[in-house]
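Lecture 7 notes: from sequence to structure.

We start with a single chain of 205 residues. Read the sequence below before looking at the structure.
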Amino acid sequence: MSQAKRFDPVERLDRAVDAFWQNGFEASGMQALCKAMGLFPGSLYATYGDKRQLFLKAIERYIAQCSQQALDTLRRDPSGLGAIRAYFDELVEGILTGRRRWGCLLTNAIVELAQKEPEVAAIVGEHLKRLEIAFDEAIERAQKAGECEVEAGSGSAAFLVCVVQGLNVLARTSPSRAQLAGLADHAIASLRPRAGMDPAHRTAH
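Now the structure, written as tokens:
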């Protein structure tokens, strides 16, 4: 039996994002999703489609919110190195105190579904490319300002993306602040800041 649509579809989709984020695709049964979203099966199917369609909508919603916020962080600070530091600070804090403790929904999707769901792989791949471009833009600003010696297009942005994905996987193992901060610091140090440059505040604060 379907519910009359007296609910906010976006707010209920946010609940689905959290359910998939915490539990993954395969482990999220329709009964559990209905409970998490507070919907009868008929309402869920009528509004979002089957579980796969719901998952794709959840990924798109995640990108529109969480992932876009991360990209905005990398573009907000005129200091390229400051922007990269702010990005890793936010990532570490989210892993320790927020929903990032579940990792990243997109990273989790890569691990679980990329080999058998080409559409999911394409969506996630496009996001990772945007992240790499945002890192490259920050590196270019940093290089022009004399904050670091590496150049945009040198492969450093792709390396930083790999570090981010590694931190997202590590998030599900309850890592310590010192462990996460150390990895973030090593990633930023790879940009080889010039001698005498203020290294900015360390992540472990």
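Residues 95 and 101 are 4 Å apart (CA to CA). Keep this in mind for problem set 3.
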